[in-house]
Amino acid sequence: KANRPNKVAIKQFKPQFEGERKSRFGISMSACREIAICRELNHVNVVFIKDVLFDDYLVNIVMDYAEYDLSTIIQYHKRNLSPLPELVIKSMLFQTLSGIEYLHSNGIMHRDIKPANLLIHKSGLLKIADLGLARRCDTNFLSLYSGDKVVVTLWYRSPELLLGTRHYTQSIDIWAIGCVFGELLTLRPMFAGEEIKMLPKKPIPFQKFQVLKVFQILGSPRLSNWPDLQFMPEYKYIKKIRQLASSFKTWFEKSSVQSELYFELLSQMLEYDSKKRVSAKDALLSPIFNDQPSPVS
């Protein structure tokens, strides 16, 4: 009996256009970046590019196929009012951290971790996908801010990004994973703030509603536990927001897993000060992973 060929996924990039006549002038920077970076990667929890095909003006990336993404799985359990089993939560988190640790150890930050970008195979194998915003951070050729002015989907954006920093580290990925972890535990986004739309030729707006969502759960940051707060470009705005006490413990009571170890790891990921935020490598050493969870279908 002949072996059936493995399914693949094809991600298509359409050409960019410029000028009044809408002349084609190439593919987007995000497409070039994703192809260049993914071609160098080889990890079980990071999507693998099998081939790149050119068809007229279209670029097609042939990659690993996955039946679901984490957002779909979370929504399914939310609709059915059924919490995710602890083994599944632990496996999803472990695999995400493993993939990110691999990226970070190779000098790459993802810059758009969210449930929709975490693909899940029916076997339970997770793969980090969509590296269109990924950047190398082991070189000093250009400032990270010189390219993409806004990175990370709003609900998963770290405090230093929300407060306008131009200098950030791989720890922005850890904050985003912390937000995903919280979502796995409650089936709801932790910080679902309303987005203030960016207008053409206008400065990047201060996302005050998103900042407020974070403060309402974690409490207002203080200079005593985040000294660099005073140097953030948008610090002047948060000084106008009244001080809020933390409700993090109360929020955690809604979690489907009532474990001090889970709360401790989540707290380390959602540390305001990026210098104190846990690394992916250290997060993988948490006692909750002592049994090194395998994929759960």
UniProtKB/TrEMBL annotation:
GO terms for cellular component: mediator complex
Family statement drawn from the similarity comment of this UniProt entry: Belongs to the protein kinase superfamily. CMGC Ser/Thr protein kinase family. CDC2/CDKX subfamily.
Enzyme class label: transferase
Residue ranges occupied by any Protein kinase domain in the UniProt entry: 1-289
Chief location of this protein within or outside the cell: nucleus
Full protein name: Cyclin-dependent kinase 8
Pfam families tied to this protein: Pkinase (PF00069)
Any GO molecular function: metal ion binding
Source organism: Smittium megazygosporum
Keywords: ATP-binding, Kinase, Metal-binding, Nucleotide-binding, Nucleus, Repressor, Serine/threonine-protein kinase, Transferase
EC number(s) given by UniProt: 2.7.11.22, 2.7.11.23
Gene3D superfamilies: Phosphorylase Kinase, domain 1 (3.30.200.20), Transferase(Phosphotransferase) domain 1 (1.10.510.10)
Catalytic activity, reaction form: L-seryl-[protein] + ATP = O-phospho-L-seryl-[protein] + ADP + H(+); L-threonyl-[protein] + ATP = O-phospho-L-threonyl-[protein] + ADP + H(+); [DNA-directed RNA polymerase] + ATP = phospho-[DNA-directed RNA polymerase] + ADP + H(+)
The keyword ATP-binding belongs to this UniProt entry's keyword annotation: yes
Compartments in which it is found: Nucleus
Signal peptide annotation: none
InterPro entries from the UniProt entry: CDK, Kinase-like_dom_sf, Prot_kinase_dom, Ser/Thr_kinase_AS
